[in-house]
Design brief:
The protein contains 5 helices and 6 strands; from the N terminus they run E-H-E-E-H-E-H-E-H-E-H. It is an alpha/beta fold. A 6-stranded parallel β-sheet has the order 3-2-1-4-5-6, with helices on both faces.
């Protein structure tokens, strides 16, 4: 019997040390997504549905850094502890890693930009994506919007995402942008009803 997630994949966005407490660019309550996302990972693993984890994997001179004319402090520099996934995130042995923003001029808020993610999903005949992580108003939003442009049905994991809110209300606006483009909001308890 096919599971409810038979044509679905989970995409966890940028749950890295630099975006969590004590990191270079911490998202408020960013750590709180970890246990929630682990529950999603467990469910997808049980149904043998693919799980991908995107990560910022920036060179020292990345164009998003203030020193290079960007708006952010240096973060998620290749090979540093800040670029590692949060140690509590259960990605061992099953989750496929997608590195983005790997060259100095490659901004890549989206997990689809400059990566082979679309090809990997289509190769597996994936039609539906469940997307959450850090941060709602930047990399999660851009990943969701690009997924919709690529023709996937998308569920935004509201309980498994947190925002930066550089300007008050940015996260709410991002959610409005995602749902306005066709994404649906979901929390884990609604997963069975969504499929």
């Amino acid at each position: 019997m096919r599971g409810i997630l038979s044509d679905a994949a989970l995409i966890i966005v940028d749950v890295q040390n630099d975006f969590c407490t004590g990191g270079a660019l911490p998202v408020t309550d960013g750590d709180k997504v970890v246990p929630i996302l682990n529950v999603y990972i467990k469910r997808f693993r049980e149904e043998r549905a693919p799980v991908f984890a995107t990560r910022d994997w920036h060179p020292n001179d990345h164009n998003s850094f203030k020193e290079s004319g960007g708006i952010w402090p240096p973060h998620c520099v290749q090979g540093t502890s800040g670029a590692q996934f949060h140690p509590g995130l259960d990605i061992s042995g099953y989750v496929e890693i997608v590195s983005k923003g790997t060259s100095p001029k490659d901004e890549a808020y989206s997990g689809f930009q400059g990566t082979n993610l679309t090809a990997e999903l289509k190769k597996r005949e994936i039609k539906t994506l469940y997307i959450g992580g850090l941060a709602t108003d930047y990399c999660v939003k851009h990943t969701v919007l690009d997924a919709l442009k690529e023709g996937f049905s998308v569920f935004f994991l509201e309980d498994g995402s947190r925002g930066v809110d550089l300007n008050p209300g940015d996260s709410k606006k991002a959610i409005d942008d995602m749902t306005g483009a066709g994404a649906k909001r979901i929390v884990f308890s609604g997963l069975s009803d969504a499929a």
